[in-house]
Structure formats: C-alpha cells, structure tokens
Design goal:
This protein is an alpha/beta fold. It has two domains: 18-86 and 350-429, Aspartate Aminotransferase, domain 1, CATH 3.90.1150.10; 89-330, Type I PLP-dependent aspartate aminotransferase-like (Major domain) (Aspartate Aminotransferase, domain 2), CATH 3.40.640. The protein contains 14 helices and 15 strands. The protein has helices spanning 18-30, 41-45, 77-80, 89-101, 113-126, 137-152, 179-183, 207-210, 234-244, 266-269, 296-299, 319-351, 371-381, 414-429, and strands at 56-60, 63-66, 71-74, 130-134, 156-160, 194-197, 213-218, 248-252, 276-279, 290-294, 356-360, 363-367, 383-384, 386-388, 403-406. A seven-stranded mixed β-sheet has the order 4-10-9-8-7-5-6, with helices on both faces. Helix 4 (89-101) packs antiparallel against helix 12, helix 12 packs across helix 14 (414-429) and helix 13 (371-381) crosses helix 14. The structure holds pyridoxal-5'-phosphate (PLP). Pyridoxal-5'-phosphate (PLP) binds at residues 79, 136-138, 141, 164-166, 219, 223-224, 252, 254-255, 280.
Amino acid sequence: MVAFGDALPTLKTPVPGPASRAWVDRLARRECPAITARRQRRAESLGLADDDPIVWARARGANVEDADGNVFVDLTAGFGVAAAGHAHPAVTGAVSAQLDRLVHAMGDAFPDPQRIKLMERLAALSGMDRAILGSSGSDAVEAALKTARMATGRDGVLAFTGGYHGLSYGVLAALGYKRDAFQGPFSGQVGAHVRLAPFGGDLAELSPLLSQVGAVLVEPIQGRGGVRVPPPGWLDGLVNAAHDAGAVVIFDEIYTGCGRTGGWFAFQALGLRPDLVCVGKGLGGGFPVSACLGTAAVMDAWGGSRGEALHTQTFLGHPIGCTAALASLDVIEGLMPIVDETSQLLRAGLAGLGLGLRGRGMLVGVEVADPLGLSRELLQAGYLALPAGDAPAPGEGVAGGMVLALTPPLNLHPRQIAGFVDSVGRILGARP
Ligand SMILES: Cc1ncc(COP(=O)(O)O)c(C=O)c1O
C-alpha cells in the first residue's frame, strides 16, 4: 500500500465533488467575492467547464485530499510553499512541541529563542548578517524597500516588467506583473516612486535611472511572471551597475530560495552579492514566516532602536513560524542532494513530449498552448498545476507568454512524476 503523500491520484467523485461544491456555496456567502474563483453557474448551464475549486481537507507530502475524499498530486506545493512536502512530520512535530512551550512572544519588545535561532540559521545559510522577520512575502519585500531607503536616503525604486512581489498596499507600487489590472482601482493611491524597466532588457539604458533610485528590486527568475530566466550575465550586469550607481540591490527569492532552484538561494548559484534577499514561501514548511536578509552595511543604516521600533509587527518573529522554519530548513537540507535528480526526471519526461521548458531546479515553466485549459484538464485527472505569466512587454530580453508553472515538493515521487507526464501527454495528445 502506497503511503498518502507518495500516492497517485484517486478520484471518487466528479471534480469538484458535491462536498466541495457545498463548501464553496457557503464560502460565496461570506467571503469578499474578489478572492476565490467560483463556479460560473451560467457557464455550467451552457455545458462549459465548471470552475469551482476543490476544497482541501487534508494534505501530506505531494498529496492533497479534498472534501469529497478525492486524492490529488499537487505540483504547485501550495504556491511553492510545501517544498518539503505538505505537513512534513519533522515540521509538524517541532511545531507541536513548541505549541506546548510558547505560542506567542512580543515582537520588538520581548524576543524568544526560536526567533534568534532562525536568524542565526538564515545568516549561516545565506552569508547575510542581519534579518527582519515577517509573516508574508510582501512583508519581507516591504522591509527590504524600507531598508534600502534607510541605507541610501533615496526614494526611487527600480523594478521590472513581469515582476511579482505581492499585493499589499505598499508593495503594489513595485508590481510589474499585470500591473494595470492589479493596480487598477488603486492607481491613484500607489506611490509614484517606482520606475519599471524591461526584464532582461538593455542595461545601458538603465544608467541614468540607477543614479536616481535607492533600490533595485528583482527576482533572479520571475515566478508568477511566467518562470522567466533572464539572459546569462544580465543579473551580474544589473548588480554591478546598481552598485556603481550607489543603489541597493534587493533579490526577491521568495519563489527561488530555500532549495527550489537547487542550492539554498539563486544568488549563490549565480555567484552574485545582493545587499538584501527576501525569502518566504518554502521557508516555513506551510507556516507563515518570511525574512528580509541583509548585509550589516545596509541593515545597520536603520540605527539602533530608540525604544519605539521604527519597523515592527504584532507577530514579528512568531515562535511557531520560526520553529516551523528551523525544522523545514533541516528537511530541505536533507532533500538538497535529490533536487537535481528529481528535477531531471520531471524535465526529461516533459521534454520527451516535445514541450519547451523554462526555469531551474524544481521551478519549471512548461510551454504549452492554453496552459489554463491544460491546468483545468489536469485537475480532472487528479493533478494540481496552475498557469503563470503574461504577454511579453516591449524591450524585454526574455521569452514572454503563459506557461504551466510547476513548483512541486522537492521530493515529488518518481511514480507521481511518471503519472503526471503521462496525463499531460494524454491530454495534449487528445487535443485537435
Ligand atoms: C517572488 C515573490 N515575491 C513576493 C511574493 C508575495 O508573497 P506573499 O503572497 O506571501 O505576500 C510572491 C508571491 O507569490 C512571490 O512569488
């Protein structure tokens, strides 16, 4: 009997099943309608695809079970979070023990050992000296942007087309991915201090801008923007040019970090030295924790606390999140030797179907026509994978367009890889 976690899909009901539908009906009555995509009843009555989500009831490893008892294989790892697999026992065990010790400490006022140990561990892994912890990815990016302002005294920020850094109120200004849509109703409230440049574009054109900005914010590989890898040497050139102009370089490694692209962080694999690095997603093994890591030179520009912290949050350095992160980093470290092999297996299978692939390690973009349609058909076959990306912007030096994005657990089982590749092949083979 294959353990729940390493299993292939088992579907007992149509997808979504009656229990998921009933939950989604209740959700629809209570949640702001802009949040969860729901069934389009009209579309359904016309015999078109049913868009309701499945409602997750249980997850372990790469398996998710929905409210109807259907088992899926999750190639999203829940937005890249479950790098060590869902509910890894080492993570949940450490958290259970911590729940008995200390659930909550007091942010900037009274710290606790877990928070200190996590910052020490992150410093050892990244080579960065200091950290500001947060709960979400956007927390980490906002902390980094504030740090850059402190360090340079300059208000300007340079970000890139296709870049995604979260949707919180402050960080919305730095959005490159579907900027018009996401900023739309808020455009009058979004700071005008951010300039966008084409991702992977001509660096020579950036020179005049760089001397005006304090921060250069970039994903080493754009995740949500479509798993886009910039041309070789482009990031090196960007880092050097930014440093020459006195700007602080922020690498947003919320997607690429914590083992997803092989190694701990993409900047290390590239041999680059950003001043600030943002991590989140996989860091907490499913618990919300994030960090802005930085060099002492940049972080110490904040100066010492004068009693009232200039930057803090109620849940800053939450003991449960920090405990989960410490355990999750241990598990990821153990998985690091197999990331290459697992990723090769997945890539070789998909390449064998004649598909183009983007990305690095276990961050894979599959180039297919109609990735949204494919993701819907895969759901019906028991595989979770989402589309990512947008149309290319003028001047970009990278391929644009949508892909099917795969960000599975790093320890996705070969049986699950084979099953997924087989399903993709079957679905695409049946297309006219
Ligand atoms: C690269 C990157 N930065 C920042 C974020 C924002 O993280 P969060 O949604 O946790 O605020 C994301 C989320 O997808 C991301 O991919």
